[in-house]
Write a structure and sequence with these properties.
The chain has 379 residues and is an alpha+beta fold. It contains nine helices and 18 strands. The strands form five sheets. It has a six-stranded mixed beta sheet. Strands 14-15-13-16 form a four-stranded antiparallel beta sheet. The longest helix is centred in the first third of the chain and has 25 residues, at 65-89.
Length: 379
């Protein structure tokens, strides 16, 4: 049904109202761009609502240093994003960046971790990290279990409340004049020189620039504007405990205590198609690893579990590209929407507005999957 109060044109249409799309939309609107967000709504896969909330740098991009630089640039910009959102929306996303730990459960795992991070430091220069043996680790994290032999630590890592972040990005974009429309599944995209028409049930919206940030929907939508985005679902499962006394001041790769006191346990990766259900065997492994890391969790009650689908490319790295055949159409897709939110707001948005592409992103065009120049997995 047509509503005359709904704008049908904008300077940029963003398809997708999750963390990726909203970070870009927020950056666009803040710069004064008339921005329209079309979101499919609650019948989508909602990757933004089922994630671990990490702002994580260490180890990412060990074999693709452009991704390491991109991730680090976002982590460095995160404090500014959190402060802006707080000032504009009164939503505190609960950012904390005290550094983070990656636990190792064998001497071999510890040695491999050190070799990986040392290689990244050699290639990047400014890449601080420490390797901690068990005694050093216990001095910092007294609750660590006897099965943990050591850990890597970097001061670059942190975490946020991802639901508050999503809310803040929506409110912030609207504060700067963006229009966000829900329940707007895209049926097709028509294009003419200098104009894209996004067709939804009963509505048509036009703009000279278009950002596809529709997660798993990017693949069919991208094909309509000359963009290759062969993303597929990858399931992660998470356990959530009751609220417990504060015991963990740092995020770790598989356990974190939230700002509200509950504990999240996760870090599974499964290729099971579009099945976002939970399974007992995977949750049991997650729980056991959590207890091995922090034995006090053995007596903590679990209150929730969920499965969510990551948006994963064949090599695990993101896809960022402007269409050569349909200039003005962009695809932005990744599986680290929390970590990269600051970069999407502060560096992708200017590119979409007509600025230069960030230099780190040139290697992440979707055509790499057609030429065989696929990178090894990013996780």
């Amino acid at each position: 049904m047509n509503d005359s109060s709904i704008p049908t044109s904008a300077e940029v249409i963003v398809v997708g109202g999750g963390l990726v799309g909203m970070a870009v939309a927020y950056g666009l609107a803040k710069a004064g761009t008339r921005t329209l967000v079309l979101d499919q709504g609650d019948d989508a896969f909602r990757a933004s609502r089922g994630n671990f909330g990490l702002v994580w740098v260490q180890g990412k991009g060990f074999d693709r240093l452009e991704y390491s630089r991109w991730t680090r640039s976002s982590a460095l910009a995160w404090a500014g994003l959190a402060e802006d959102l707080l000032q504009e929306t009164d939503v505190d996303v609960r950012l904390k960046q005290p550094g983070g730990f990656h636990m190792c459960f064998s001497d071999q795992e510890l040695a491999e971790r050190q070799a990986r991070l040392a290689g990244m430091q050699a290639g990047l220069g400014d890449y601080p990290f420490e390797m901690l043996d068990r005694a050093d680790l216990r001095a910092r994290l007294p609750g660590i279990g006897p099965k943990v032999v050591g850990a890597s630590y970097t001061p670059m890592d942190g975490h946020v409340n991802p639901l508050k972040l999503l809310r803040a990005l929506h409110a912030g974009a609207q504060h700067h004049g963006a229009t966000i429309l829900g329940r707007m599944p895209v049926e097709r995209i028509d294009s003419a020189p200098g104009e894209f028409t996004v067709v939804t049930p009963g509505q048509r919206f036009t703009a000279p620039r278009l950002v596809l940030a529709a997660g798993l929907g990017n693949r069919p939508l991208g094909e309509q504007v000359g963009l290759h985005a062969p993303v597929a679902p990858n399931r992660g499962q998470v356990l959530v405990s009751e609220r417990v006394r504060p015991f963990l001041d740092y995020p770790t790769i598989n356990v974190r205590q939230t700002d509200e006191g509950s504990v999240q346990l996760g870090d599974s990766m499964e290729e099971v198609g579009f099945n976002d259900l939970t399974t007992t065997d995977v949750l049991a492994r997650i729980a056991q690893r959590g207890v091995n890391t922090f034995p006090l969790l053995a007596d903590v009650r679990l209150v929730r579990a969920w499965g969510a689908l990551r948006v994963m490319s064949p090599d695990g790295y993101p896809i960022y590209q402007e269409s050569a055949s349909h200039p003005g159409a962009f695809v932005v897709t990744c599986h680290s929407g929390v970590t990269l939110a600051a970069a999407h707001a502060t560096r992708i948005a200017p590119w979409v507005r007509g600025g230069e592409q960030p230099e780190e992103l040139a290697v992440f065009a979707g055509e790499r999957f057609l030429t065989g120049e696929v990178f090894s997995h990013a996780h």
